[in-house]
Model the fold of this input.
Amino acid sequence: MRAYVFPGQGSQKRGMGKGLFEEFPDLCREADDVLGYAVTTLCLENPERLLNRTEYAQPAIYVVNALHYLTARRQGLPPADYLAGHSLGEYSALLTAGAFDFATGLAVVKRRAELMGKADGGGMAAVVGLSETAIEEALRAHGATGVVIANHNAPRQFVLSGGKDELERIRPVFERMEGVRGFVPLRVSGAFHSPRMESAADEFRGFLDSVDFGELGTPVVSNVTGRPFGSGAGAVREALADQITRPVRWAACVRYMREAGVSDFVEIGSGRVLTSLIEKITAEEQHAGDEQEARGEAPATTVNVARGAGADELDAGDAARRELIARIKREILHPEIGDAALGFADDESFRRLGLDSIVYVRLARKVQEVFGIPFKPDRIYAHRTCSALADYLLAERGGAGTEADAAAPREIRPTETARQGTERKGAEPPRTGPRETEPEHTEPEHTEPREREQEHTERKPTEPDEAPPWREYRDERVLAVLRDCANGTLSVERAIATIRAGGAARR
Done:
């Protein structure tokens, strides 16, 4: 099963959408009409660093996310089983699901951005390296009752929200805690996703009452609950209003989709921030599962073990499924481990066989060769039993009643203005004004453990939005070892020895 996820504020940068605007001139003119300025100029030139301000960044990201999605659909992107977005990105997911047309969604995002951009007196800070329990205990122990966790981005990556003075007071507390890798104040004007935003949420709720919402053609997982939006316009309005004051439960959203059977997450928009967070969430769950297996306990649920609506159709007694499991043992495992594969239990982890990362790479290549589908080594990590791997292959081949039966996302609907192809030129984004000296309003939708540089004109290769050098390395055997080392499965010394041994063998 597939999920498409959309980034939120924090993904903006100068040059975003380059090469897309000219492909969708009608939508761009429509965006200019809604916003009152040229969104193309804003995104490509970032005059006076306006993308640093919430009231400009949020509409720009919404537009660019939509253009990325439409481009992907033109290129043959298949329907999704689930949709989700990180905070602001949730509006892109709702647009894709058919909740509203492009212009209506942009008008809603514009109003949200205006209300959040007016917030002041609060602040936010990213905390990296600590568990949720450790953070909450520290806040209680030091009487920081006005500070809350605003973003649950990954198991050890959170964002706090509250009064600026209180955040500054507890900063040294967190910096002294064992395991903390960073406490980074964020350049924002308000305490977003906290009770301090209640007045903005109330005003936004009143605005949403005038907006018509359509039925969702694909489930959209809500940041507020970590579960799909309820049915009906009222449920959507309530969740969107609550989102302004409630924490973003991104990790819970990802876990829900994984437990529902999603194995492929595709980030649609600028950058790979959500992809990185999903990898962290997945690695943490796999590490927990490995610990359970080592203790002899039942392994934690892995991707495609619980497959949501399609699970009932994957009956363990189904002849096709049994035959596929037998083929996996006979044609995939047997060449690597011999006759032990034929008697291997369907639900027993491959790790019981002592397979290492190099063998996992070979298994992945064998799957690709035998079944004729693209198959990366990390799929073996995610489906490390014969039954789980069979379920995944059935779904990919359309035999599991999942993707073939999934409702296709509705096309993004232009409004009458765009259909008529108005020739109106968008005004330039406003230049110098009374807010020029105000703090930069950047909602920390996905913040890494350092201050984010908002201007990306000439980024250095080491910045997080840039692909690190190892991503360009194509030796999958070495990459597999590095992943094992990163998630704690292999020690550094063992990883080095394995890589050297592989290199010697190749020589």
Summary: The chain has 18 helices and eight strands. The first strand starts at residue 2 and ends at 6. Residues 116 and 200 are 7 Å apart (CA to CA).
